[in-house]
Structures
1.
Amino acid sequence: MDDEGKIRQSLNETLIGYLDSWGLREFHDEASYYQWQQASLSQQDIRDLQLLVEQRQGGEDALADIRFYDLLAQPSLLPILYSQRFDYFLQLGLLLLPRLSSAEHVLDFGCGVGILTLLYAQHNPTIQFTGIDRSVRSIEVARCEAEKRKISNVKFEVIPPSGFAISGFYDCILSTQALFQSEQSAGLPSKNWRTFERTTDPALQEHLEVRTGLHMRLDALLKVLSPRGRLLCFEKTWNLGRRILFQRALSTRGLFPLCEPVSCAYHELGEMKSDGPVYEVSRVPLTDPLLWDEAPYPCDGETLYRCVGTRAKHMAVALGMSRSQSEVRGQHATLGRWTFRLGVWEHVLAWGWCETASGFHGVVLGSVQEQHLLLQLVKNISLLSDLEFEECVQDCWGTVLDVRQNDSMPGYENHFPSAQVIYQALPSKMIQREATFADDEGKEMHIEIGTTMILTYFYWANTFDQRQLVLMDEKGAPTLCQYYQESLDEAHRSSQEILPAP
Ligand SMILES: C[S@@+](CC[C@H](N)C(=O)[O-])C[C@H]1O[C@@H](n2cnc3c(N)ncnc32)[C@H](O)[C@@H]1O
């Protein structure tokens, strides 16, 4: 391990010890966590919590939010409920701690019970920290913990729920999941269902900033940020519409990125979460300013889709998988002879096809841009032991021995923004039926069914970056037609069809 790795590992261990000192425990699955929660909390606590969670679900209700965080701060509940965020604190601590060392006065906006604020303060005794929050109970706990831990370079203050009278002057302001809450808001819509691009409409931007409370919070923070100060924030901006709204809110206030936004993923009870990147911005631009990225973030492997059994066999015929670009063969003790072929369909889809003498058929399909992932898959396949071969096939398609399947299973399916790239590149596309809808809020949605060569496709897209592309061979086409009709009926129930001009 290099020096950097050793420092990180040591910090990791220190942070785990620190979270332990709060009574927090790490859980890697929901079942064991909820078992512990049920055993540790009274039925009344659980009922109170459920009620507050429900009350908060409506959106921007400050009082419901305060009641929720006040409850979480109760000493009997705090370690149990905040344990869900164990890895969140760990990953954020690892990422933010090294970025604070150059600061003198740091404000932590929406500090909650101060778990992160006290961590930063303990590790940076020469920096003065101020934590502010509108939850009185949370601030009481934060003050009490500071005293108990003898951390004197920090103070905590309650700020009123309405109006933002923040005092002081800071060269670094932190906001982690406090500035841009309003989780119901999908942010800025795209120009239309065909694109991820947004209009530059200052009135819409302002309207959404006001509706989400972003404008008041951001303006209040900027009043107390020194001219050369930095704002470090980590908010729920994974969704592209929210990311662009947030970035434009920063940009219109003259804030520039000081470095590329850094992704921060963490697990919550075993489920991976990527809320958005950590932004580090300032009013002083770099000599060579960085541009804001408004494109969807691609995820490695997001275009890959697998199917097995008869659907795989039909897709193999439809995509001409007998004509492979490369082929690897081998012999497995129980599965018999196996073949793995790779190829590309019409410059659009890369495919991999595996069959064994025992009767297993598996297809993996992805965009040509991700063909390298399929190449990696087969690169060493002929060198694998029987067990490793089984594991490799299992990782890709699930169990080799159980190839039962539902005939309505798609031949290919993609729910990511990359579905649009594949949809646009489909060869000899012929639309059979299509419809576009708008709801009361102007949100636009489009569905379409058609053919591409001998395949049938279904495409669904809206102005909040949701996409769905499904491809079927001839035998699966009726299922797709039925799916189109169901989607059409559903759309008619919730929105208004935009009829083409005569
Ligand atoms: C999700 S918690 C995050 C706490 C902490 N920053 C963290 O990363 O663990 C959100 C916190 O922001 C506080 N908060 C939300 N809106 C606020 C506002 N307008 N003024 C002050 N605090 C606020 C809430 O009371 C809550 O403690």
Note: Residues 69, 110-112, 116, 133-135, 138, 159, 176-178, 181, 217 surround S-adenosylmethionine (CB under 6 Å).
2.
Amino acid sequence: MRVSHRRSGFTLLELMIVLVILAVLASAFLVVAGGVFQQSAERKCVSRLQQLAVMIEAYRTIEGEYPDDRLPAAAATNQTNGASEALYLAFYDPQFTGEVPSQDWLTNTDGDQTSRTLTRLPSRELFELGDPWGNPIAYFESLHYADDQDRSYFAGLEDEDPEEQVAEPRRNARTGGFDQAGKFQLISAGADGLFGTEDDLTHYD
Ligand SMILES: [Ca+2]
Ligand SMILES: [Ca+2]
């Protein structure tokens, strides 16, 4: 009896130790899995930006110039998300013959519409090209890097209301000159949904 009693007490202690170890392992797994999930979202985003950059270069080959980062007159009722919307309209122009970004990439964080038939899609929504978190990808055409134009975007964390932000074309930290001179910049606000923070992603970094 005595032996049996001691054995059952030992088993309980063992069980508690096992439970503690399992809890530690589970929390470690969640941290690692969360990190891996984050990394895969970032890889997906960089891949999307790079694919988009290839399509922009192909657009230039066909059309002779990069897509404009300014909206055509009367295309929108606001200027928010303007450059990303201009990029969408350039690719989805009914006359454009080249490869266009996937419709799965389209988002419309400011909920606006086109005022005339500028797109080949049946929807009149004035879409933006979006990143995997559903925020507009900021687009800067080098002709207008130094211009004082509206660069506001509606972006933020998933499941929260997007907030109005300003995105600026990037400069080289040492020289102060614009990155991608003579070309263009594509910038995602990254996982934090904020432009101008450490986790921002580009097609050329
Ligand atoms: Ca829009
Ligand atoms: Ca960010």
Note: The two ends are 71 Å apart (CA to CA).
